[in-house]
Amino acid sequence: ATRRGILALGAGLLVGCRRNRSSSTTMERVVSLSPATTEAVYALGAKLVGRSRFCDFPPEVTAVPSIGGFADPSFEAILALAPDLVVGVQGPGLGPDFEQRFVDRGIATFFPPTDRMTEIEAMIRGIGQRLGRDARARQLVESIGAHRAPLARARMLMSTSSLSGIFFVWTDRMPSRPFTSGRFTTMRRSK
């Protein structure tokens, strides 16, 4: 047997022994396979034991072990971390049985759709529920809603006026230097 196979078997046995928990137990050992779920976990005040190589925000997450990429995570590396919960977003590459392999071993999973803002908000609430951080998830979703309100007003303004477009700058690093490029713009630096 290879060393990798022995490691996977040992991790599987360890995980199997840890799964005699009630469903109301808070999840503490979380592996995230997508930047969106990683950022949600940290925004909720929790931490990860594993991440995909594409998860790099917040900066401290880069110290967390990488388990591969979004579309090519190492199942054995994830098992070796003995997670309570594996999270990610729906997407190509994982295959139909990927999530089921964890479920079969008693490891909870959460792979919600995140194509729309309402789905992102539902993802945050779902992770908050699984981590026992429901109140913080509600606060975060409300905060996102407050930031979205000006965008909704601008959208309404565009639909009722002769405006052909609006340029938004959204940054947490002010002062920023907004710029745009496109068909009717010129990017030049004056000397």
Quick check: average pLDDT?
79
| Dominant shape | elongated
Report the count of strand segments: 4
Strand content: 5-15%
Q: Strand-and-helix sequence, N→C?
A: HEHEHEHEHH
DSSP summary: helix tally: 6
Work out the helicity level.
40-55%
The strand order across the widest sheet is 2-1-3-4
Question: Ranges with pLDDT <50 over ≥5 residues?
Answer: 1-24, 186-191
Radius of gyration, CA atoms, in whole angstroms: 21 Å
Main sheet overview: 4 strands, parallel
Report on the structure:
- The chain contains 6 helices and 4 strands.
- The N terminus and C terminus are likely disordered.
- Helix 2 links the parallel strand 1 and strand 2.
- It has 191 residues and is mainly α.
Descriptive tags:
four-stranded parallel sheet; disordered N terminus; 191 residues; 40% helix; disordered C terminus
Concise description?
With 191 residues, the protein is mainly α. The protein contains six helices and four strands. The protein is 40% helix and 6% strand.
Q: Secondary-structure blueprint of this entry?
A:
Layout: H1 3-18, E1 30-32, H2 35-43, E2 50-51, H3 75-80, E3 85-87, H4 98-103, E4 108-110, H5 117-130, H6 134-159
Parallel strand pairs: 1-2, 1-3, 3-4
